[in-house]
Amino acid sequence: MPTDCLNIKTGSKNVLDEFTSHFVNVSKPNTVGADETYKCKVLDHLSTADKSVNSVSLIDVSLILDVFVKVA
């Protein structure tokens, strides 16, 4: 059941207005150019990241089952 009082505002219209004014910034999009800025930051990080990290073996279901059987 909807409320009829919110932040000392009463009545459906006043409650709706209060709710709307409180959440006015929820759906604002990024600022102009924000996507491009983050794209550049990510690409820069990826290009300078340490590429000498050793590769990690893949883990598949059979390996997990082998370990599980040995433990059980």
Summarize this structure as a short list of keywords or feature phrases.
two-stranded antiparallel sheet; 3 helices; mainly alpha; 51% helix; 72 residues; single chain
How is this structure best described in words?
This protein is mainly α. It is built from 3 helices and 2 strands. It has a two-stranded antiparallel sheet. Strand 1 and strand 2 form a beta hairpin. The mean pLDDT is 81.
Short recap of the structure:
The protein is 51% helix and 6% strand.
Q: What low-confidence regions span 5 or more consecutive residues with pLDDT below 50?
A: none
Rounded Rg: 27 Å
In N-to-C order, the SSE pattern is EEHHH
- Structure annotation, total helices: 3
Strand-residue fraction? 5-15%
In which range does the helix fraction lie?
A: 40-55%
Annotate the secondary structure layout:
Elements: E1 5-6, E2 9-10, H1 12-22, H2 34-48, H3 61-71
Antiparallel strand pairs: 1-2
